[in-house]
């Protein structure tokens, strides 16, 4: 099982590419914009950056987009990595107000396909392929179907790191993916790259594919060094654009005001945050999170191949560590656990397909009759979101 089996045929890949181009064109034709307030703000910032010289792309401003006096001046909530590609797409000719949503759509698709690739390393092909379809119908996927925000890019960064670590255990070329994921996570969401590193640590600890931990640790060390270089370069670019450093201002804006709850002396606050994240993870990844919870309490429900069981343990360790870490902070939001929720959903999809006969029969029946089922599901759901969006129920403001 050293080489992942192909989940998609050449014909299916062609259908998915053609569908992605078509729905992107439809998104532009319909002049799509999200009702999610963060997406609207970020998309507007990207559009405004496209009007400025490239040297200014590193330093977006709020430009009076909100009435909140705390959100004025330079954008210091996160580094500007989220804006680089949409801004470049706008400069290349895409409508500035839609380019961010095209990018967001691409990130969601990339996350889905990378998840499938990672699953193919640890579970049978049929299970991984079923997950490509089932992942698209959990609440989290409906909420974030087409948005311009940090969650899917950060998930992509995490998946690049995990796939890179798996590959690095066999080929050193995987170290480039690890570095790309860590550097990308830093430039997209700053301190939240810690969750990407947490995922890397959990992968090396559990080691689902039994690769060389020495090579994996070397790749992580190189990636952290690359991120440090990128941080210095980013600060130098920011100084050219604004005359001042970024990371110090970012620290004072985002990190310094935040407090950390001590689980023993502030047990109530910690428990409330813990419950907040746990309940939202279970609900946003439903119904597949139920399959994951079922496997947690029933030994005979866990995956049978040893590699699959280790992968399930990795998801459990990563999700648990993410929830505990996030629960310690005074600032909390369900989007912070997006990557953990998505991976729990992926594990639950596999478990549901393997253990719930009704799910297996439905997927096998559809896969035998619908050409390129995962791709067609994606195309249909995205098209419905674009065409029927104004009349669909709102989940999470999307």
Q: Can you give the helix content as a percent range?
A: 55-70%
How many E strands? Answer: 0
Largest sheet: none
Q: How many domains make up the 3D coordinates?
A: 1
Question: Low-confidence stretches at least 5 residues in length (pLDDT < 50)?
Answer: none
* SSE order: HHHHHHHHHHHHHHHHH
N-C termini distance = 40 Å
Determine the mean pLDDT.
90
Q: What structural class do you assign from the helix and strand content?
A: mainly alpha
Describe the structure.
There is one protein chain. The protein is an all-alpha fold and 398 residues long. The chain has one domain (38-378). It has helices spanning 10-29, 37-49, 81-91, 99-120, 125-134, 139-143, 151-168, 174-189, 193-206, 213-242, 247-255, 267-284, 288-297, 306-327, 338-355, 357-369, 373-388. Helix 7 (151-168) packs antiparallel against helix 8 and helix 15 (338-355) crosses helix 16 (357-369). The two termini are 40 Å apart. The mean pLDDT is 90.
How do the strands and helices of this protein lay out in sequence?
Layout: H1 10-29, H2 37-49, H3 81-91, H4 99-120, H5 125-134, H6 139-143, H7 151-168, H8 174-189, H9 193-206, H10 213-242, H11 247-255, H12 267-284, H13 288-297, H14 306-327, H15 338-355, H16 357-369, H17 373-388
